[in-house]
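Field reference: sequence -> structure
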Amino acid sequence: MPVPNSKSVAVIGAGPGGLIAARKLLKSGFAVTIYEKGPRVGGLWDRESLINPDMQANFSIFTVSFSDLAWESIEMGTPPAFPKAWMVEAYLNEYANRYIPDSCFQFNTKVVRAERVKPTLGQGKTWKLTTSSKKHIEEHVSTFDYIVIASGYLSTPKPLPCTLSPRLLENPPIPIIHSTQCRNISQLMPGISTRSSVPQKVLVIGGSHSGSEITTSLALQASNFHYSPSLPSVHTTDIEIIHITPHQMFASPCFPRDYMSPTCTFEPFEYKVFDRATRPQEPLTHEFGLTNPQENAGMKMLMQTVVNGSVDSETLRNDLPPYGVVSETYNQFVQDERIRVIVGQVKSLNLQDQNTKAHAHSTVTATVLDQNGQTIELEGITAIVNATGFNSADSLSFLSSTIKADLGFDPDSARLPLILDASYLSQRSNVPDIAVLGFTGVNWGVMEMQARAISRRWSGEPIPEDAETCKAVAQQIVQFRHAIKENRRSEIPQVLFGDYIGLMESGAQDMRLRRVNGAFGEFEGMVCPARYIDSPSSSSSDDDDDDDKAEAEKMMKLLQTVQHRARTEGLYLARAVFLGLQGRWTSPTDPDHEEWTFHPRLPTRRGFEMEYLAIGDGINQDADSDSNSDSDSRTVFRYDEVHDQISAWTVDPDDALSAQSLAFTLKFDRATEPSACSARVVRGESGGMLVDEEMVYTFGFKGCWLDGFRMQKEMGDGAMHVVEFVRPGEDDGVVVEDGEVDALEGVGNKAVVQMIDLPSLKLES
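Structure field:
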């Protein structure tokens, strides 16, 4: 049990930041009270908060976690590599149940005011908190020695950053909602019947993760709108989705290619982005600064080449920094023209003059200034989704103007509202008795480092953080603010303090944390929370320290097992292939196999994460079948993440949208080529599955995306029947040309160019 130190702390917010702060403070013996305005823990991850419970996190379980709780310790079965929001909520619930006594929580309680009070003769508390709750009519006052603000940087949705006509402000006749409110595409089409032929045009405004996430979600639902058997009838409404983003976005899949592997390998993107081996084999410092056109060009070349396998000259026509997002399907929906992307800014939204009194036919015209300075008029908009992000001011509304001034508060700086120059960007050096978690970097590992730092400082343990370092951070925050206000866009990086590896490593060195490297060497492998655990202290028990280490070791073992399986067993090959199948394919080699189109839809059977209805024009599903119908051929393809498996299902002859029975699965072997993999067909029901040794699928990749595939079957007479499929317009077979990938190894804000060979692959009949 921790040794009490008689000091008290108020933690405002019960999201990830509040929970990890409470955990570290409790370990150090502080008396902790957590104020949460909602009914339970979770913060943004709470099921009734701003995040869709089914939204996939943009980081894996190895990053979305704390060092002292492994995901395998959560009772939910095998966790996916990238968890859904409701799973993150379950993780936080388990964390709170395990480490924080119920008596610490004050739910349904809002902090109204936080004021500094003068202690009498050096004694007494220094903070007075006034709170209100649903249980008590009157406000309640409590006093504390310290305050932790973990109320959330992403607290209040921003308004649309453009001019709106009066009727759109007062009583809009079309849906205008924030991305956090959008759960189903039906919200954007009120009154539209299942047989309606009225075209729908949805405008999504805003870049970064929220913009790409809601856009891909709507695109999937629009496809499902037409191809799902669960809907009452086939919809004929044409749905166009337009995405306006102020930045040139680069969407990386969750599992990109590992170009350092001699064979075709896919693994979670953090394995490379956060790889300690990309930095020098020496103690690191946290680096930061403005960017410049040269660095921007290099990063754009890297991101596009790694993802797409080539560089589009259009990418380098401006000096702006790239904006990376994590999305497995955004690029495919854009390629399929299900999403139309315009890089620019919406200047105005105006209600069109209609000759009908029916609001259902009212539309909006959007005036957009694109990245080339050209004005675009988008007419016929029937719904608008605001995905422009959040303001943080409301998270600090309970602080007095004096305290805000002490913290360097700037109400006009949404991205950097405070000057937090100490304790790994969580405190201001001249205000030592208050901390703010999650306002400068919301990565869970960073928040854990911040929580360790404030716990140590308030316990009287020194941290080697000198005045010059704090001064440099404060000056950099001011420089970032000026660049943002002056719209010097080419100098503003996507993540202002984005040196995650440097911050984590320097924090571990400064606080002398124990390392859990597992099979990794000291200077290699993914940097994640589980690699750093607290050193034993006088305020913690040996059992607690052993338990923390066991959880971290469990997490590191899973991380390294996943990496080993990806490199030696072909784990995630099936996923990469399945995602790459979306859209249209044509066969230039066989007149009987004209075209496939893989239409994504929501899974129609439990146990599967993704599903297509594949419709073939002139396609014969079985290479040795004698049947050949003039009508289209249909197959349902499903992906099972737990087993990393693709399966194909026949379609019910009485219902052209419903799957009937299992036709075959694909058994992927470990890849032997740098840019290709193969799979054998396994036929029959469970318990009697047999590998068809005579039929093989081969899949070729360009960058992270499927470039083409072929079916090869040995016929009864010994002849080989080979059919290739490529994207329409690509008639030269499945080719990945010889080339080079410019990989930038980040050293602070400097870029080191490293050449990685991409051997050629040509699949010919």
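Note: The first helix runs from residue 16 to 27.
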